[in-house]
Amino acid sequence: MSAAQNSVDFDRIMPRRGTGCLKWDGAAERFGAEVLPMWVADMDFAAPDTVMADLQERLNHPVFGYPGNEGSMLQAAADWLARRHNWRPESDALACISGVVPALYAAVRAFTRPGEKIIVMPPIYPPFMTAVEDNGRELLLAPLIADDTGHYRMNWDALEIAVRQAKLLLLCSPHNPVGRVWTPEELQRLGTLCAEAGCVIVSDEIHADLSQHPHCPFPSRFPRSILLTSAGKSFNLAGLGGGVSIIPDTGLRRAFLNEVQRSQIQHTNLFALTAMTSAWRHGAEWQAALRQYLSNNARLIADFLAEKLPEVGYRQPEFGYLAWLDVHPYGDDETLARRLLQAGLGLNPGPSFGPGGEGFVRLNFAAPRSVLEEGLDRLRRALHR
Q: Which of 4, 7, 241, 383 could pair covalently with 53 via S-S, beta carbons 3.0-4.6 A apart?
């Protein structure tokens, strides 16, 4: 066990320019000017001290050969799931992957053939759609439905039709960008619907550890499904890559791992193994403090918008650090993009998340309070009329 203690100072500014990071160093190219980047989903917080200590210890040995400690990382993942989400998968169900998105692409190839239909529920994280289209499959959309408060739910009428036409459904759980943590009842209904139709579910649960409400791992209720996850989002380790697949069903697991092998994404790299093992073993206290800080940031956004921009639609997310803002009263998407750029603020445009994203932007609030306040002030300037 690492001897380092996790000090927590999320207010500390971590300068990131010049580190080769996409979020900061790639923002000017993406947006066409220098902006305050509050877009791509990584956090402007230092990783836990225990993770840094374990990485430094490994770096102190100057030989970086092929790793052989994948079993330790998988055991740490299983132990973490048991503590954090009250579910312990059998050890045979877990396997390493090079990352969640490559595994999402592999699942498409493993369980469907070119031209077949795959269900996604937009607005949704863009790789869900590109994984289908880049592999020559057909998108079958079952768009989410939002009420007047910005609370989204699954479109059961559309899903009941779609599952009769598709062999695969890609589930985002919790759902990025709309901020939902699906309830056990919702997941039970979805799982039953798909099981009766013979439609396999692949559940991307990479944001699950940051849930503010209880999260239900999908295979804990429906073993004939695939769970993909990583410590990347919840401990700010995304740049290291790596991840875990969890598939209780033997037949599905064999089919998936065969495609993973063909795609050569069956390994997690040396430093991701070290970091994720450390995070899952020793990071619970740090992450609990993180969730509280993010919850406070989410409330800060709500208070700011209520006072300064009451026409912006916003519902505090049920997990993580992604605010889904309805800004359609302020103009069309092209106009909004121009106004945000003039104010020096870089956000994800809603249309990039597919149908239902029009008139929205996604704001990443995993930043020190002072940075978030500056970002909100720039948003006010962009939308001020």
A: 4
Instruction: Determine the pLDDT at residue 8.
Output: 83
Task: For the chain, give every domain's residue range.
Answer: 22-49+283-383, 58-281
- What is the pLDDT at residue 2? 52
Q: Which CATH number fits domain 58-281: 1.20.910.10, 3.40.50.2300, 1.50.10.20, 3.40.640.10?
A: 3.40.640.10
Q: How far apart are CA 175 and CA 270, in angstroms?
A: 30
The answer to whether domain 22-49+283-383 and domain 58-281 are alike in fold is no
Rounded to the nearest 5°, which phi and psi values hold at 81?
A: -60, -40
For position 5, what pLDDT does the model report? 63
CA distances from 233 to 135, 240, 267 (A): 26, 11, 19
Nearest to 337 by CA among 371, 382, 304, 381: 382
CA–CA separation, 38 vs 175, rounded Å?
19
Domain 22-49+283-383, classified CATH 3.40.50.300, yes or no: no
Torsional class of 27: left (φ above 0), alpha (ψ -120 to 50), beta (otherwise): alpha
pLDDT of amino acid 361: 98
Strands 36-37 and 225-229: unpaired
**What tokens appear for 379 in the block?**
């948003």
The pLDDT value recorded for residue 4 is 56
Return the SS3 of 307: helix
Q: Contact at 8 Å (CB) between 90 and 253?
A: no
The pLDDT assigned to 384 comes to 87
Give the residues of the chain that fall short of pLDDT 50.
1, 3
Write phi, then psi, for 199 (nearest 5 degrees). -100, 120
What residues are paired with 362 via a beta bridge? 324, 348
129/137 Cα distance (integer angstroms): 10
Location of structure tokens 């863009």: 126
How confident is the model at residue 1, as a pLDDT? 44
DSSP-derived letter for residue 178 is: T
